[in-house]
Amino acid sequence: MSQEIDSVTGKEVVKPYNIQKPPKELKARVVGGNSGGISDADMSLLNSFVDFLGRCLELNPEKRITPSEAFRHPFIKI
Fold it and tell me: Where do the structural domains in the chain lie, given as residue ranges?
């Protein structure tokens, strides 16, 4: 929900905020078109990073990773 001041009445109004998914998946944005030359170990690290980043950027706070979960994530433990 978005809280805004109505320009006509000057009162605060709450409007639903439409959040759309990005057109490209996060992994495709991070890797780009260069996934062919990546070793298996690097691809595993990249997948772990993409998972970590995706969980940090989750808009729904109930689904977002907590700080204690983040410290236990495989990407951080490396």
Answer: 21-77
